[in-house]
Write a structure and sequence with these properties.
heterodimer, A: 182 residues, alpha+beta, four-stranded antiparallel β-sheet, 6 helices, 4 strands, B: alpha+beta, seven-stranded mixed β-sheet, six-stranded antiparallel β-sheet, 44% helix
Chain lengths: 182, 654
């Protein structure tokens, strides 16, 4: 996982729960570095440890943390110099979700160690669509819900996300029903 | 409109394909393309180009574009020529550049432009209304922009990190500096607090030793108090010295001196110490070692005292030797040495002690480091562990390098070579070693004011000066001093600096502003030990500056320096309980005098009786010494009474 992800976790914890909480999480997860470098590749294991430790320190489930993180991720990447890339992906939520896979494909090209997930939209109607999420990583589905909510905030659009198909329940991928203000 | 694609390179495996693409597919593949007819009218444009230039279809090429490269005319023939070159077009309506190539479809007299916008910053796309899906999937321009953006973000992050680290470094530096300042303040304050009582201890023990009614046992105990006080002062000075070295405040202070006398003095100092040990102390230097030199005598003395002291401390039996020699040195000469003759001297202190392990040989020069042997076998008597560290720094300051060679069980040798200047001997006047008894009678009566808040120290100085014969008054603070000055007009003021009510600096300034009194000499006498204290005192109007504790001889010498006071000295009659107290220079003087005033025959007789340990016969012979050489006779009688025939023998040898 690129350092950008760990950096976002750090900033989210500091923003929402304070520096002290982050220090506890850092100690608990045995994280040595003071600063994560965005474009440096870190073991996935470190990110998992951070989430697990955050869950213990903050008293939240891993799913809750991942959902919060998804929401924060949109804001964070927008501020960390990737906002203009996101601008290219669309001016409204459905357009953005439609371009989400292309965005990840291109990011995957320029960040070769990224192993990005894949997204597809289906059943698009006036104010609903189904978002299909494919990833080799486990336990990231809650982040997708948060991510879509975060995008709703980015485009100032009320949005409701429901997971309608779950890989953990045996499906081959996760599907989310997204309802948004037209 | 249909576009027929004819492959330029015929395949050898199959027949050339002749195919066409529907316009919407062609537009998706080349969203920024346009097609010119033979009149250079734009007859077709891709969807993204139409988005950027809404009325582009039907317009003339020259109304929409200017050819930036290559330098060709905007006519049909010219535009068909450079089909293998990169064509750069500037859009006239919007600030955008298209890059691509022209392709001629000759059957239809059409020119196709295939290309896309060229931007180098992703932020420039948004004002144009361009997004990812406006570019062909195969077009790498968006990936290129993504990559550039990611690199820019990384660069910004690196700058931010570097700034943060620089800030942290600055903060750490400031913290270290403030800690260092706190340490200096602490040391200055500790130094003051420790020196003040130490001044009283040392001063009173010196004063008490003037008391003629004291028994030898009392004198012995007094000398222990004094030497312990001196030891404490030496430790305190070590710590201060180290802090000064760390603060870069140590400077070289070269003076002219007699090296041979200096070494003899050192020898006498250490002869006392080896007396109780089975150690043979030897100082070895040849006649080629120059006698009169210029060097920093205080630092040289401190280094040699430290090295000899260590050697004697760690050697229980055997030999401790100081060897001084002229070095065949390649040391770079001092800048000052160009005009005066110079040489380099090597000093080596070797012992037959336990030796130092290879691991310890570098560590012993680190501050506060003590070897295990040192800690175990000399519990309670070892110092701060700063001596060698200070010595090495001093030697470096003098232009040399202190090194050690040793093997466990084989003793150790510390040596260093320093450059020195040679100086003419006549410039050096030997200082009297006698003790001051009183102020010489044929002199004015000097009024001396002692300003000191610390009662014991005030009493000490007042007693000393009054005993010597000065007229003395005292004040407890700077304010009291002002009143006394005005009424009593002292010749000289010993001024403490740190005092309640009014400190010495302010008092000095106020005295200097008094118009109607003869201005006294003011000497600051303070327990503050730092150079800046001296500078401050001098700036406030003090004539001189002495640090406490200060030996009475120095106090009296300064009064001579500033007031021209002359003293009467006690007779030079050293107690000759052993040969050590008859120092080498004195022995040399004595020998020379004996050779001058007594005949060779008489000297031969004295030598024979000394060899035979005939003290009575010696005493008889001594009666022949004339009364004008009574001092010589007293010394020899003393030697005979103490059975020091060995010394007498040495004095008679040619």
């Amino acid at each position: 996982m690129y350092g950008l992800v760990n950096k976002a976790i750090q900033e989210m914890v500091c923003d929402h729960f304070g520096e002290e909480a982050w220090q506890s999480i850092k100690t608990l997860s045995e994280t040595k570095s003071d600063n994560f470098i965005s474009l440096e590749s870190y073991p996935d294991d470190l990110t998992h440890r951070l989430v697990k430790s955050a869950s213990q320190v903050l008293g939240l489930s891993a799913a809750e943390i991942m959902e919060d993180f998804g929401k924060y991720w949109v804001k964070f990447t927008g501020q960390e110099g990737y906002g203009e890339m996101m601008d290219l992906a669309g001016d409204d939520l459905p357009e953005f979700l439609g371009n989400l896979d292309d965005l990840h494909s291109r990011l995957g090209v320029i960040f070769p160690k990224m192993q990005p997930p894949s997204f597809q939209c289906s059943d698009q109607e006036r104010n609903t669509l189904n978002l299909h999420y494919y990833s080799h990583r486990q336990g990231m589905a809650p982040m997708v819900s948060g991510l879509v909510e975060g995008l709703g905030e980015r485009f100032d659009t009320a949005v409701e996300v429901t997971q309608i198909q779950d890989r953990e329940q045996g499906a081959d991928h996760d599907v989310f029903s997204v309802t948004y203000q037209a | 409109m249909m576009f027929s694609q004819l492959p330029t390179r015929p395949s050898t495996l199959s027949a050339p394909l002749n195919y066409s693409l529907p316009p919407e597919q062609f537009s998706a593949a080349f969203p920024f393309h346009f097609v010119l007819n033979s009149d250079l009218k734009i007859v077709q444009a891709g969807s993204s180009l139409e988005l950027l230039l809404p009325n582009v279809c039907g317009s003339q090429f020259k109304d929409q574009f200017v050819i930036q490269r290559p330098p060709i005319k905007p006519d049909f023939v010219s535009l068909t020529e450079p089909c293998r070159s990169l064509l750069i077009l500037n859009c006239l309506q919007i600030g955008m550049q298209l890059q691509g190539q022209m392709m001629l479809v000759s059957e239809q007299d059409l020119i196709f432009f295939l290309g896309s916008p060229w931007v180098t910053e992703i932020r420039k796309l948004k004002p144009l209304g361009l997004k990812l899906n406006h570019f062909a999937v195969h077009d790498r321009i968006s990936d290129f922009l993504f990559l550039l953006q990611a690199k820019n973000a990384a660069l910004a992050e690196a700058h931010k990190l570097a700034d943060e680290r620089a800030q942290k470094l600055v903060a750490a530096k400031e913290m270290a500096e403030s800690a260092n300042l706190a340490k200096s303040t602490f040391l200055a304050s500790m130094s003051h607090e420790l020196r003040t009582p130490l001044n009283a201890i040392l001063g009173f023990s010196q004063l008490l030793s003037r008391d003629a009614t004291l028994t030898p046992a009392h004198l012995h105990k007094l000398s222990i108090i004094n030497s312990s006080g001196e030891h404490l002062l030496a430790l305190l000075n070590d710590i201060l010295e180290m802090s000064k070295i760390e603060a870069g405040q140590i400077i070289l202070d070269p003076t002219d001196f007699n090296l041979h006398h200096f070494l003899e003095g050192l020898y006498n100092l250490f002869q006392q110490r080896v007396f109780s040990k089975k150690i043979n102390l030897k100082f070895k230097y040849s006649k080629t070692v120059p006698q009169y030199i210029q060097a920093d005598i205080k630092k040289l003395r401190q280094v040699l005292i430290n090295l000899l002291g260590n050697a004697i401390k760690f050697t229980d039996e055997g030999r401790v030797q100081l060897t001084v020699g002229v070095a065949q040195s390649h040391l770079a000469p001092h800048p000052e040495m160009e005009t005066r003759s110079s040489c380099a001297l090597t000093f080596s202190v070797s012992d037959t002690g336990p030796g130092i392990s290879i691991e310890d040989q570098e560590k012993i020069f680190q501050p506060f480091y003590q070897t295990e042997y040192g800690k175990q076998s000399h519990q309670g008597v070892h110092g701060t562990g700063l001596g060698l560290s200070i010595s090495r720094q001093f030697v470096e300051l003098m232009g040399g390098d202190l090194s050690v060679s040793s093997q466990l069980g084989q003793g150790a040798t510390f040596s260093f070579t320093i450059p020195i200047l040679l100086c003419p001997g006549e410039s050096l006047v030997a200082k009297p070693e006698q003790r001051v008894l009183q102020v010489h009678p044929h002199q004015p009566i000097y009024r001396i004011l002692v300003v000191e808040d610390h009662a014991d120290n005030r009493c000490l100085l007042v007693t000393l000066l009054a005993t010597i014969g000065f007229l003395v008054k005292s004040a407890q603070n700077g304010h009291e001093a002002l009143d006394i000055c005005e009424e009593w007009h002292p010749h000289l003021i010993w001024m403490d600096i740190k005092m309640p009510v009014m400190d010495g600096l302010e008092s000095t300034q106020r005295i200097r502003q008094m118009p109607n009194i003869p201005q006294p000499v003011i000497i600051a006498l303070t327990a503050n030990a730092f150079e800046e204290d001296k500078e401050r005192a001098m700036a406030c109007g003090c004539n001189d500056f002495l640090r406490k504790p200060c030996h009475e001889a120095i106090i009296l010498e300064r009064m001579t320096q500033h007031l021209g006071v002359k003293y009467l000295y006690e007779e030079l009659t050293p107690p000759l309980t052993n040969s050590d107290s008859l120092s080498l220079p004195k022995r040399k003087d004595l020998k020379a005098k004996l050779n001058t005033v007594m005949s060779k025959t008489w000297l031969m007789q004295l030598q024979t009786r000394a060899i035979n340990l005939d003290t009575e016969g010696i005493t008889d012979l001594l009666d022949e010494i004339l009364p004008e050489h009574q001092d010589l006779k007293d010394i020899l009688v003393n030697l005979a009474e103490n059975y020091r025939c060995d010394v007498i023998l040495e004095l008679t040898q040619q």
